[in-house]
Amino acid sequence: MTDVSVRKATEADLPILLSLYAQPDFNNGRVTTLDAAKATLARMATYPDFAAYCAEIDSEIVGTFSLMVIDNLAHWGMSSALVENVVVANGHQGGGIGRAMIRQAFRLAEAKGAYKVALSSNIKSTKAHAFYESLGFEKYGFSFRLEPVSGDRALQVELIDGAAS
User: Fold this and answer.
1) DSSP state of 95
2) Residue 49 region by backbone torsions, left for phi larger than 0, else alpha for psi between -120 and 50, else beta
3) DSSP-assigned beta bridge partners for residue 119
4) How many angstroms separate the CA atoms of 121 and 19, rounded?
5) Angle CA 120–132–60, to nearest 5
6) What distance in Å separates the CA atoms of residue 23 and residue 43, rounded to the nearest whole number?
7) 16 alpha-carbon distance from chain centroid
8) Residues 105-144: pLDDT tens digits?
9) Would you place residue 45 in the very low, low, confident or very high pLDDT band (cuts 50, 70, 90)?
10) What would the pLDDT profile of 87-97 be if each residue is shown by its tens digit?
11) The pTM of the whole model exceeds 0.70
């Protein structure tokens, strides 16, 4: 494998990152607009320890991931880290790029004192699951999600929250 370098993404990288996110095995063409991506990247820069990263081979972007290191009051005050949006360009998969990206994410998290590095993966992404397990990740707990809603369902969620307090 050729040497992979990893660096923080810049606004100039966004068209390539959006094309990576659009790959069929990631978001299948569903991506945000370039203007919205620019606004999101600018917002991300206001968070401490949150960034998108680019993996490059010979100055060509061949992968990306995001990393957020989160301050924590529990766990002895040690931070935790969350890796998201791990994507390697089609045609470059299987060459160690994903491994290099996750290793760099782990080094960055470790340097910030994170007690754990977590990530989530679509339940159908069995190839990704095998990859993460090959890196030493263990299945841990359950991941749940609730998509934002509006209208009648939003009222139902509000009522449930109100009844619980």
Assistant:
1) S
2) left
3) 83
4) 19
5) 95
6) 24
7) 16
8) 999 999 999 999 988 887 778 888 888 888 888 888 777 7
9) very high
10) 999 999 888 99
11) yes
AA letter at 136: G
Q: Do 68 and 94 contact (CB within 8 A), yes or no?
A: no
Q: Is 115 exposed, middle or buried (0-12, 13-18, 19+ CB in 10 A)?
A: middle
Residue 93 tokens read as: 């998969």
Q: How many residues does the chain have?
A: 165
Closest residue by Cα to residue 4 from 83, 68, 73, 92: 92
**Nearest to 132, CA basis, from 102, 95, 159, 97:** 102
Q: What token pair was written down for 46?
A: 């206001």
Topology given in CATH for the domain delimited by 5-164: Aminopeptidase (3.40.630)
* Helices 34-44/14-21 angle, 10° precision: 110
